[in-house]
From TrEMBL:
<comment type="similarity">
    <text>Belongs to the short-chain dehydrogenases/reductases (SDR) family.</text>
</comment>
<protein>
    <submittedName>
        <fullName>SDR family NAD(P)-dependent oxidoreductase</fullName>
    </submittedName>
</protein>
<dbReference type="InterPro" id="IPR002347">
    <property type="entry name" value="SDR_fam"/>
</dbReference>
<dbReference type="InterPro" id="IPR057326">
    <property type="entry name" value="KR_dom"/>
</dbReference>
<dbReference type="InterPro" id="IPR036291">
    <property type="entry name" value="NAD(P)-bd_dom_sf"/>
</dbReference>
<feature type="domain" description="Ketoreductase">
    <location>
        <begin position="29"/>
        <end position="203"/>
    </location>
</feature>
<keyword id="KW-0560">Oxidoreductase</keyword>
<dbReference type="Pfam" id="PF00106">
    <property type="entry name" value="adh_short"/>
</dbReference>
Length: 309
């Protein structure tokens, strides 16, 4: 690290921190949530609506979002949009603005996972799809609403994952995407602070959603990948638990939330843990066997040169 960077860090850390904006009460506020038709997004939409917020449920599955809205009332708006479609998301945010006149909170929640594959054998289109939804989709969601967030001195939440700092073998596009979302949220937090608004990053471990069950339970290789997680990191939380964590983070304007809390030590100590962990994984015969099995399955559709065993 250069002397100039060290000096800058010393000056920044020595200055007294500016007070963070007051707590955010969602009553009578307008909240945008992507991926709101199912899972965490649905649970959060229901919770915030019950707390008095007007909620815009954005989802590619309009029928699913509409089913959620029917359990609410006139303060719910359903907008069909694909987060990877930049023009479509700009239009979706405009519809929210036209309906409610303002936007106070944005939760960029929509995301997907790829099927297990190594970098060598994956279909490049699968990589592009995950990045397009999980990373570019976050930008497409947040960017057109930022003037509203600044005007309202509101709050943005980007949903990352403990996958941002966990090993990524067999599912690297997801880990890459969530690490990118983390950095996006950190940058946004600092930038919005200059204008009195806030942003935070949400990190989840294993949440019991349909996506999780399809990835880790119903797919043999996915289950074996999940099986590498030690206790207590393999403990699951419900979508309600995840929604509670998000809602509490919004109320506090939290820079980061981690759920379940078992992942907090890993998040804080990742720089040391990952050096040791990576060294062990590259020598673990269980991991080697799993990688071979993933490549054997993928090679049926995408021929590759067999790895030496």
């Amino acid at each position: 690290m250069s002397a100039g960077v060290v000096g800058l860090l010393r000056r920044v850390l020595s200055r007294p921190a500016q007070p963070v904006a007051d707590r955010l009460d969602v009553r009578d506020r307008v909240v945008v949530i992507t991926g709101a038709g199912t899972g965490i997004g649905r649970a959060l939409a229901e919770k915030l609506y019950a707390s008095g917020a007007s909620v815009a449920l954005i989802d590619i599955d309009e029928a699913a979002a509409a089913a959620v809205a029917r359990s609410m009332g006139e303060r719910a708006l359903v907008v069909r949009a694909n987060v990877s479609d930049r023009i479509g998301m700009r239009q979706a945010i405009s519809r929210v603005r036209e309906r409610f006149g303002r936007i106070d909170v944005v939760v960029a929640n929509a995301g997907v996972v790829p099927e297990p594959a190594t970098i060598r054998t994956m279909n490049p289109g699968d990589f592009d799809r995950v990045i397009g939804i999980n990373v570019t989709g976050v930008f497409n969601t947040v960017h057109p609403a930022l003037d509203d967030i600044v005007a309202a001195k509101g709050h943005v939440v980007v949903v990352s994952s403990a996958a941002a700092f966990a090993p990524g073998m067999g599912g690297s596009p997801y880990m890459v995407s969530k690490a990118a979302v983390e950095q996006f949220g950190r940058a946004l937090r600092v930038e919005l602070a200059a204008v009195g608004a806030t942003a935070g990053v949400a990190y989840f471990g294993v949440v019991d959603t349909a996506m999780t069950r399809g990835t880790l339970d119903e797919d043999e290789l996915g289950a074996d990948l999940g099986g590498l997680l030690p206790w207590p990191l393999n403990q699951r939380i419900t979508v309600r638990d995840a929604a509670d964590s998000l809602a509490e983070g919004i109320a506090r304007r939290a820079p980061r939330t981690v759920a379940p809390p078992q992942w907090e030590p890993y998040a804080l100590l990742r720089g040391v843990i990952n050096v040791v962990l990576d060294g062990r994984l590259v020598r673990d015969p269980r991991v080697h066997d799993l990688i071979h099995r993933i490549e054997q399955r993928r090679s049926a559709g995408h021929p590759v040169t067999p790895l030496p065993r």
